[in-house]
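User: Structure tokens for this complex, please. No commentary.
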Amino acid sequence: MTTVPTPAPAEDTPAGAYPGRRRQRRPRKQGSQSVEGVTLNVFSHAFLVLWVVMAAGPLIWVAMTAFRSSGEILNDPMGLPIAAHWENFTTAWTEAKIGRYALNSLVILAGSLTGTMLLGSMAAYVIARFTFPGNRFVFLLFAGGMMFPVILALVPLFTIMDNLSLLDTRPGLMVAYIAYSLPFTTFFLTSFFRTLPSGVQEAAMVDGASHTRTFFQIMMPMAKPGLVSIGIFNFLGQWNQYLLPLLLNNENENNYVLPQGLASLAVSQGYRGDWGALFAGLTIAMLPVLVVYAVFQRQVQAGLTAGALK
Amino acid sequence: MKTEEQARTPAPITKSFVPWRELGLGSKLLFIAAVFMPPRFTPARVRYDRRYRTLDKYRFILGFLALPLLFYAIFVISPFFQAIWYSFTDWSGGATANFIGFGNYEKMWNDERFWDSTTTSLLLLFVAPLITLVLGIFFAFMITSGGRHRKGQAISGVAGSSVYKVVYFFPQVLSIAIIAVVWQRVFSTRSGLLNGGLEAVGLGDFEQAWLGGEYSLALIATLTVLCWSFVGFYVVLFSAAMGAIPKDIYEAALLDGAGRGKTFFKVTLPLIWDTVRTGWIYMGIQALDSFAIVLVMVPKHALKVTPVFLYERFREGQFGYATSIGVVLLVLSVVFSLLIMRIGNRDRIEY
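Assistant:
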């Protein structure tokens, strides 16, 4: 199951065998190298496991501590849960409003992700498949936006939203998510649409399909792998967004999205000393994303690393 | 050419093609009206005209581009230009904004708090990519070539490499704000994982009030979280790049008697250099923008980075000043990117 492409195994390796476990003599090579291979193998596993502990350790600790009472946490932060304190989760979900924040996040995401994918693929399709004056300009306009840091837009974006009376509203936040996701989405999908064969599009046109119909019924299904990658990228980016909600959705605590809610919870629970609920809240926030990731790991990794390879 | 096209077109319009100029006023109006008409209500005379196809194409292009471009122009492009304008004004949210030239930049130059936060940001900018990339390349190399030698293969990945990558990638799918809260708990003096862990292994002397307000400790904490969240990303990125290197290059190196170390420095690293450079720039920009980590995790009096300093000025209502800091940040990240491009520019190796 390695993702590293390896050439076909030699004739004496049965297909699907677990290669690391086989002790093999290699007659043609010197023994010293094989020893080196084994030591290196042990050595590399040791380092790799070390980082597994580093990467997953804090998260596992949070999930475990979520089942402990605040008193236990303060006494011994490293201890295992004695009795499962499920009430931490109910407190987090209701009193600390994690449920509400999660719902807000979902509602915002439903609108913003649909909008991003629709608008992004529309723009990308037109840029990739049609020649018209200004095509290059529009493409560069979107591509240039990828360099633009949101933090620079802080003040103007705030005033624009205020003037359009979109400040502290859901549509406002959705629109902002869409606008700031468009550059990369369009850029990525443009290169994707370019790789699709043009014959199919022409065939559809000859058969009398309109441009719109060709797009929605022929080209969109063909672009599915690209749409999935960029969809995952945007899903995580928008679900995890912190700066935009902090700027545009800061007035009413009931409208907070999940990351925003947890950040404020960290402050308020600190005053109350109710650490158990905070840990439970963190667990509730992290678990679904991690589960979804574990299921779609290959697509997620491909989608997210595509961002850096622009 | 012309006869062919006429032969293909349906019967009603076998008339010869009339240039746009010579078309009657009525037909011209009909064409203009056709822009807004659904095809099925468009008269056949217009619909099967060659010009209608061009018209239809542009109508489609405009229709599809209008909304994305509108959103993009209002919320991304226009804030950019407004920001540059605001940075030269003393605007503080009221009705008037006076042009004050480089006043904000002068103020920034003399503002000690700006320099404090920017020094921290620059430190992160130089140190964070270094640590993250070295760790990322190291683990990626371990994953792609740390395995035992198999017969007939010069290089092989470790067993379970995809499991490693899945776990390493965990932090990347979490919100940076949530990561900041998690690590705030980890670093907690009384009930944190770090101090608790140190005590458990008998290193109680090393316990610290990590986020208690001391600058150097807060800096270490910020760096740790920054690197922790991105190492996995680079492991995945670099191991994909390393996996794309053809195996026969490694075989050739092995035949020539190159060891693992030599293979890494002479073969692997040069061949993934483009990816490393891109990753370096990307990580630098992330380090400059370590807004959420510092805002959520680090107490205000311990340490600040430039984006946090900017945000505080914004909340104080110093809109002009805040945007000028944003402009400086943009310039910094552009200069950094160009610098890395220039430094890291090597001959591209095609394989």
